[in-house]
Amino acid sequence: TTSLKDAFKGDFLIGAALNKSQIEEKDTLSINLIEKEFNTITPENEMKWEQIHPQKDTFYFDIADKYVALGEKNNMHIVGHTLVWHSQLAPWMQNEKDSITMVKNIEHHVNTIVKRYKGRIDTWDVVNEALNEDGSFRTSNFYEVMGDNFIALAFKLAAEADPNAKLVYNDYNLWKPEKRAGVVRLVKSLQEKGVKIDGVGMQAHWSLEGPSIEDIENSILAYAALGVKVSFTELDVTALPNPWDLDGAAVEQSYEQYEGDPKMNPYPEKLSEAAAMQLANRYETIFKLFLKHKDKIDRVTFWGVNDGQSWLNYWPINGRTNHPLLFDRDFNPKKAYERVMALK
Ligand code: XIL
User: What is the ipTM of this complex?
Assistant: First the structure.
């Protein structure tokens, strides 16, 4: 086979997050690769609250409309990301303290957007990152004003606005046992209230070392046991060290101080052969696990198309050269791509 989407046909969808210039089809090399390799897309930033609903009575749909049209033109499974999230939230909404107003604003937001794309956006990341690492609820402004009711509200509204859309709770580090338990509690409580939830999205911003396959597998099993699907929504494997993985003294320094430090950026130009092999091994192991549980997994989406376009060049430290995806900066498939394809 000649593409990821064909290789994994019948197993799960294969996707990529698209940036603005890709959505606007300004970037032909990207578009060619996206159309060839992927059958599902996610907007990296363009449907977040601050972008799509920048003022209380102003929605900005230009780019989102183009995004949906691009997906439809290619018969892709179209993901909406994300309706309710404390981050990249419009400033006018950030400090709302009145619960009645907050409910009204969430209603207006979810209804307007989900109805606009009814029958066209196939899956919604309804709520993003509502949990802490220990599985308790994050004390975002949403939570401070409404408690965890904002979560059920958002799911209820989305289900009413488009009964056929798949509704997902999305978060990072969902392999962690304590956070996993928090998601299980959340999904159960929604189900007990009769609120529709179809899936758990594991973001999957991972590294060469972790998380362990066992932890990921235990989460797949725990979520699937609730009767919901598991999606890997934002997969990438950083090839560079994260500051919090270094020793305590190092972590106390501000991230900016690492810029230019060879320890933090060991492959500034290109991946060494050895590192490319490590990345390939890691992706192979990850995809073996996905295939083992393909009956529970409906989608694997990469967070970006090629290495040069990945957010990991800017986060958590700005200006590093990272290599987290399956395609290099020239849009060529890497060793990791070959090893993933060889599984089929
Ligand atoms: C990231 C984007 O990739 C960046 O371009 C942006 O500056 C910040 O957000 N979890 C999510 C995604 O759910 O929306 C985030 O995307 C990455 C972490």
Answer: 0.99
